[in-house]
Design brief:
The protein is 34% helix and 28% strand. The strands form two sheets. It has a seven-stranded mixed β-sheet. Strands 6-7 form a two-stranded antiparallel ribbon. By secondary structure, the chain is α+β, with helices and mostly antiparallel strands.
Length: 241
């Protein structure tokens, strides 16, 4: 049984394969219409299978999709204190537009395979600046730019002008939003996603950030203090009619 459980059917039946392809196409079209800059699809990502492993100790199912040096695992907790939580664990420096291809495969596997799929209510993203390397700098860059452009952020002091920093970052990230790919990712699965909790916001002078050259192109000064990282918890709920 464990052997069967570890082997994902690679969307074996024609019905599931057709559904998976349709979901990929729908996600790409939706993101494109949202004004995102999408690179041409990478054939390696399209051929990537999903590995499914169950951990008795953690009471969780691990869904992993990899391509080259890029690997993403979602740990879906089926029991224990973290029941209902999905933990995002990436080692990938690819742009979000390409990561969505792997994430769509993971979602397809999870929602078609996991008997508890309907019970998952939380996606724990971890830090926007992932600890495991290589890591994408896209979300940290978006957060820093959003704060720089916000009238409510004090670039000199490196904090909101008149409210707590966690609440400010949560509202800012949801308002832009800085995670449109995730919104489109869950839409075909009849789910909507919202940043629900923010903790441990990190702020640095722009010149100390690895993507300062890109910030500078947008008018950011070297001494401007900007948020670039936080622990992020997203809520998942049925898509509103």
């Amino acid at each position: 049984m464990n052997i069967l459980f570890k082997i994902y059917r690679r969307l074996a039946s024609s019905a599931i394969l057709s559904a998976g392809i349709s979901l990929l196409i729908c996600s790409a079209v939706a993101i494109a219409h949202a004004g995102q800059d999408l690179s041409p699809p990478d054939p390696e990502y399209d051929a990537t299978p999903v590995t499914i492993e169950y951990s008795v100790l953690e009471k969780a199912t691990n869904y992993t999709a990899s391509s080259g040096v890029c690997s993403i695992t979602w740990i879906a907790y089926n029991g224990g204190p973290n029941q209902g939580v999905i933990k995002h664990s990436p080692r990938c420096a690819a742009p979000m537009a390409l990561q969505v291809s792997l994430l769509t495969k993971i979602c397809t596997a999870l929602f078609s395979h996991d008997k508890d799929a309907g019970a998952f209510r939380t996606l724990f993203w971890g830090g926007l600046a992932a600890e495991r390397k290589p890591a994408s700098q896209e979300l940290p860059l978006r957060l820093a730019l959003a704060a720089y452009r916000s009238p409510g952020w004090d670039v000199r002091k490196g904090k909101p002008k008149n409210r707590d920093i966690n609440g400010f970052i949560k509202e800012l990230a949801n308002g832009v939003p800085i995670y449109p790919e995730l919104q489109e990712l869950f839409r075909p699965f009849n789910r909507q996603i919202t940043l629900a909790t923010v903790e441990k916001v990190r702020v640095l002078e722009a010149e100390k950030l690895p993507f300062y050259s890109r910030l500078e192109q947008q008018g950011v000064k070297a001494t401007d203090r900007l948020p670039f990282d936080c622990m992020a918890w997203f809520s998942l709920s049925p898509l509103s009619p």
